[in-house]
Amino acid sequence: MQIAMIGLGKMGANMCRRLADGGHDVIGFDIGEESRKNLEKYSIKTASTMEEMVAYLKPPRAVWVMVPAGAPTDDTIDKLFDLLSDGDIVIDGGNSNYKTAFTYNTKLAKKNIGFVDAGTSGGVWGFDNGYCLMVGGSKDAVAKVESVFTTLAPEGGYAHVGPCGAGHFVKMVHNGIEYGLMQAYAEGFELMDAADEFNLDLHQIASIWRYGSVVRSWLLELAEIALREESHFEAIEGHVVDSGEGRWTVEEAIERGVPLEVITLSLYRRFSSQRDGETAFSNKLLAALRNQFGGHAVETLQHDRK
Asked: Which helix (DSSP H) or strand (DSSP E) does residue 13 occupy?
């Protein structure tokens, strides 16, 4: 099917490539000329304006929004409301707060434009491995664009999890769990790093734990990569950003009276890491893991830093 992708960053561009490889007719749009040119290298069409993008599509049109949550997504949805018409579908695949899905859905419904919220996980590895997709929306709206989801996801990695808002809600909790898992790995490796009497090879341990161990996971595989000698792990600063979903998960737990001790503490640890001078091993590993799965930038220690 035809689909437009707005936002050609780390994930959006790779999603365009995976869709095109899967036989879809894709057009990409980004305000950055360099991002458009990078996608064009793969013989995928791009548009320099949203108007041009919409004009290329044949009704009923489908547009995937893959831009940062908040104002960028708000502005994009507002613009699409003006450009799209009856029967078209908008998919929000960014890390939006699930409550915004209700607002977007209500607004777009005034012109009978469908809305789908697609929680998307896979990071910079999604092109090769596929993207886990947690999709919310009406059955009719989801059915119209389901072939896009099945192309992007690996086998078994896509589900229509519920009505409008459910997709982003599930993705929010997913990221909250991610905080806790990452923190547990980081603390365990920090303890082993402190056991000087054994002179443990942490990369070796991360490597063997990938096979047969009950703690094996994709995050552990990424820890093994981060701890390789050539990764320059020691130069990473332990400054760990929290991108919003962890906070929302904790806030939601407070509102619903659900105890989330591990996730809450892992969020607070990230706050602690953001203070100047934080160089704890566990925080360095957290920063390295975020870089591995999401391509998030890491800060490096300065040579003259004490």
From this structure: helix 10-21
Please report the pLDDT score of residue 287 as a whole number: 85
Choose, from 178, 224, 245, 252, the residue flagged as catalytic: 178
Using CA atoms, how far apart are residues 71 and 257, in angstroms rounded to an integer? 30
| pTM of structure | 0.91
The vertex-285 CA angle with 283 and 286, nearest 5°, equals 65
Give the single-character DSSP code of 300. Answer: B
Dihedral sign, CA of 33, 39, 41, 44? Answer: negative
Peptide bond into 68 cis (omega under 30): no
Residue positions counted in the chain: 306
Can you tell me whether residue 125 is helix, strand or coil?
helix
- DSSP strand E in the chain: where? 2-6, 25-29, 45-47, 62-65, 89-92, 114-121, 132-136, 158-162
For residue 304, the model assigns a pLDDT of 36
Tell me if 238 sits within 8 A of 205, measured CB to CB.
no
In 195-244, where does DSSP find H-type helix?
A: 202-208, 218-226
Active site residue 252: no
Query: Any catalytic annotation for residue 171?
Result: yes
